[in-house]
Structures are given as C-alpha cells and as structure tokens.
Design a protein that fits this description.
The chain has 249 residues and is an alpha+beta fold. It contains 6 helices and 8 strands; from the N terminus they run ααβαββαββαββαβ. Among the domains are: 82 residues, Sporulation related repeat (Alpha-Beta Plaits); 75 residues, Sporulation related repeat (Alpha-Beta Plaits, 2-Layer Sandwich), CATH 3.30.70.
Length: 249
C-alpha cells in the first residue's frame, strides 16, 4: 500500500504541473503595437438615427406643416350703378304703342332702348349717359326726328366700370363758364313762384331766380361754375324737400 501511494501521488503532481506551466514559471509578456496609432473609431451623433435605434417602445413622430396657397382674388366688377340720364320718348297706358315706339327709336340707340312699366305707365327711354350734355344732344335729335315730346329724365343707370370717370373730380366733364343751374320747380302762378323763390333763398347762399318760359315760371338756383359743386348742392336741396329738383346745363 505504501508503495502504491508513493507512486500515484507524484504522478498526479506531475500531471497537474504539466497542465499549468505558468504556475511553475513566470514568463515575461511583451505588449503588441498600440492599435490606436493606426485607427481610432469616433462616433458621430445623429439625433434622428439615434432616436430610431432606441428601444422599441419609443415612437418617432414627424410633423410637416403644409400651407395651402392663398385663394385667388375675386374678379373686379365690370359694371356699376350710378345716377345718370336717359331720354324718354313715350309714356302712356297703351303697351302696343310703347312697343311700336321702341322699335322706331331702336335705330338711334340700338344697344340702350329701355321699355319699362312704372306706376301703371309704359315708358320708352333710350341712352345711358353719365352726364347731362350728351342726353340733351340726343333729346334734340329725337325732337327733330318725329318725337317732339322727348325729354331728359334722371335715373339710375348701369355702365361699364372702365368707362366711368366719376371716381375722380379732376376727370369730370366740366362745361366752360357758369353753365350749371338747379331747377327747383316750375309753376304757372307767378305769385306762387315768388313765394317759392323766397323760401328757397333761405336754404342756400347761392342766387335764386325766376325764369319765364311760355306760361311757366321756373325757380332756379345759380348759375354755378363747376358740375361737382352743382351736384353737391342738388343733393342738399333734395334732402330739404324739393325732391323734383334737377340739374340744368
């Protein structure tokens, strides 16, 4: 037994020493070349990618604000309503007669013949004039061509915007000299005309006169030099109760 032990134990010790030689002998290790001299990895931050590669429970939301183009501007109006003038050649109860007259005058102003029914009367009017002077010229033409009762009426008309120059007082048609008057009324009684003259004189600082025309006495204000001044005074006189007043050239 002693013999067996003396053989086995040394053999085991030799086997262990063979498997762990470093335990018996300390060897000097030589370090290899420093790899950082040849290559060094540097991470560049990327907030977008770093957010994507984070944990799965995190979500990335990208928002884009889309601004639509502004709506197109509405087209400018091609026509507008203003206070203007027409020439009236007929007013009566007979609708057939009114239609006949409208056909007769269509040759003088084919694009602006108006057949109206107002207060039970059938009326035929022609023209659409922003100013009184052209209407007066057409009135004289109609009287020379078989319509002796033609007269100028003032009413709302529709004209093209490009043709309207009333937005600027500098471009208004102005007649030379004192050519504008406002006719307030026309009566047959001279005493009545005198009373109206005194009454109107108290409402304006412009001269008020009586003009005789046949068996009529006309009460007129003026003369006035500028059309803009005359129109402004006309509106004031109408507001004071003389609704039939109108501008005379």
């Amino acid at each position: 037994m002693k013999f067996f032990t003396s053989i086995i134990i040394p053999a085991v010790l030799l086997l262990l020493m063979a498997c762990q030689p470093g335990a018996l002998t300390k060897k000097e290790t030589i370090a290899g070349p420093d790899s950082s001299l040849y290559f060094q990895q540097v991470d560049v931050d990327d907030p977008f990618l770093d957010t994507i590669f984070q944990l799965p429970q995190q979500e990335v939301t990208l928002n884009r604000l889309i601004i639509p183009p502004p709506p197109p501007e509405p087209p400018a109006p091609k026509f507008k309503e203003i206070e203007g003038y027409r020439v009236q050649v007929f007013a009566g109860l007979d609708s057939l007669k009114a239609g006949e007259v409208a056909n007769q005058v269509s040759g003088f102003s084919p694009d602006s013949v108006h057949l109206l029914v107002e207060s039970g009367l059938h009326k035929v009017q022609i023209g659409d004039f922003p100013y009184r002077a052209p209407a007066d010229n057409l009135k004289l033409l109609m009287r020379r061509n078989g319509f002796p009762g033609a007269w100028v009426v003032q009413r709302t008309i529709v004209i093209p915007v490009a043709a309207d120059s009333s937005d600027s007082s500098a471009t208004r048609h102005e007649l030379p000299g004192n050519r504008y008057q406002i006719q307030v009324a026309a009566v047959q009684d001279k005493a009545h005309a005198e009373r109206l003259k005194r009454e109107v004189s108290q409402k304006t600082d412009q001269p008020v006169n009586i003009q005789s025309s046949g068996n009529l006495f006309k009460i007129v204000i003026g003369p006035l030099r500028k059309e803009t001044e005359a129109r402004r005074l006309l509106q004031q006189i109408r507001k004071q109760g003389y609704t039939d007043a109108w501008l005379v050239y």
